Amino acid sequence: MELNKISAKNLTVIDRELGDYIRSDEKNPIFTPAQYEIVRRAIYYTGDFEYQSLIQFSPKALLIGGAALAARSTIIVDNLMIKAGILSILQRTFANQVYCSLDSMLEEELENHHSVCRIEYFAKHYPEGIFIIGQEQNTLSKLLDLIELEEIEPAFILGTTPGFLGIEKIKQRLGESSIPNILIDGSKGGAIVSVGIMEALIELSWQVYYQNNHS
Length: 215
Description:
CATH topology: Rossmann fold
Structural class: alpha/beta
Order of helices and strands: HHEHEHEHHEHEHEH
CATH superfamily: Cobalamin biosynthesis CobH/CbiC, precorrin-8X methylmutase
Helix content: 40-55%
Strand content: 5-15%
CATH architecture: 3-Layer(aba) Sandwich
Number of strands: 6
Radius of gyration: 17 Å
Oligomer: single chain
Number of domains: 1
Distance between the termini: 23 Å
Shape: globular
């Protein structure tokens, strides 16, 4: 994220507010430095400090997600806002291919697969890809069905879908999955928080990648 004066001041406010939360348990750190950057970015993009207690990381999620980015894994998203939000930073870093399941350019291709829903089409073409499901809970549920049937094994999943009816059970399934993931607990979420989290993950991963290959 390119910082201007306003952005820097906003992040300073976030750091000050989060400081009290983090210092409440100094002997057992709530976040690693990398996780902290993910959390502060989610708050920056949403203006909602509740995300400090809603973001959940599976073991080694950032490490494995970063490795998948560095391996140029294809990224599948369920919302055009997410695609637009991460394309710029990807073009400056890993240059992963990004597909959106709602992209109108794919209508003709998808017409030949009437019995297959959009996410299933992409999942079966990129079974080891990175999946960002930020808006549609039915899409996340279908993706989890394919994982549980062992038809696909994504490298990493970011699940930030909002909702009320059944969303907690769906997110619980993701949390209990063996797939490395970051998810938003509860009913909150949405495309904008997906963009914030992914931007932070891409930047952190690029810093590590660049240092390892230019030292």
